[in-house]
């Protein structure tokens, strides 16, 4: 078997897009908007919806990964790098779950659901960054962004230096040769 299940491939790329969107929206846009801005409330609504979707997709992805056959682990020729690769993939799941959980904790702790989805936009807390769960959310976001960068570098290394055609594993097509 040379490729992952097509449903797992679709989940991978859909989640990749949603995670990059959520990281950009949270870290580059929302973090720099004043709390009394109506646009921030709208932005939080989208950010929270995407975050909850990512959480649900993560559960579906983990279930799919556990229930489907997949190719053997990619090899680099270095036991250390191979172990780092395996740990990196499980770290992705942990960090994504951490992002979702700290995002929900922030939303509940600041009472954001009725504010964002109930129309009480005038009651947005003045500074969400003072909440410990929001601080954890930001630290996990930084770790996740770093891991994404490492993941991209590793994929490029496999594809263009090892020339093992690794990227085809996480793309659509015939699963066996």
From TrEMBL:
Domain Cytochrome b561 bacterial/Ni-hydrogenase, chain residue ranges per copy: 3-173
Keyword Lipoprotein: no
Cofactor: heme b
Keywords in alphabetical order: Cell membrane, Electron transport, Heme, Iron, Membrane, Metal-binding, Transmembrane, Transmembrane helix, Transport
Transmembrane segments: 7-31, 43-60, 90-116, 136-160
Lipid bilayer topology: Multi-pass membrane protein
SUPFAM superfamilies: Transmembrane di-heme cytochromes
Superkingdom of source: Bacteria
Localization annotation: Cell membrane
One Pfam family in the UniProt entry: Ni_hydr_CYTB
Principal location listed in the UniProt entry: membrane
InterPro entries, sorted: Cyt_b561_bac/Ni-Hgenase, Cytochrome_b561_oxidase, Di-haem_cyt_TM
Tagged with keyword Cytoplasm: no
Family in the record: Belongs to the cytochrome b561 family.
Protein name according to UniProt: Cytochrome b561
């Amino acid at each position: 078997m040379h490729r992952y299940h097509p449903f797992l491939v679709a989940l991978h790329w859909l989640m990749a897009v949603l995670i990059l969107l959520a990281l950009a929206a949270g870290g580059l846009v929302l973090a720099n908007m004043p709390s009394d801005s109506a646009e921030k409330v709208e932005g939080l609504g989208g950010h929270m919806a995407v975050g909850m979707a990512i959480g649900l997709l993560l559960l579906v992805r983990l279930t799919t990964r556990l229930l489907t056959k997949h190719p053997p682990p990619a090899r680099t020729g270095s036991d250390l790098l191979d172990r780092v690769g395996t740990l990196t993939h499980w770290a992705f799941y942990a960090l994504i779950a951490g992002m979702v959980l700290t995002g929900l904790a922030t939303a509940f702790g600041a009472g954001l659901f009725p504010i964002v989805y109930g129309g009480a936009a005038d009651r947005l807390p003045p500074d969400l960054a003072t909440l410990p769960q929001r601080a954890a959310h930001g630290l996990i976001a930084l770790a996740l962004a770093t891991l994404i960068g490492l993941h991209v570098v590793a994929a490029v290394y496999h594809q263009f230096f090892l020339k093992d055609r690794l990227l085809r594993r996480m793309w659509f097509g015939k699963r066996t040769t």
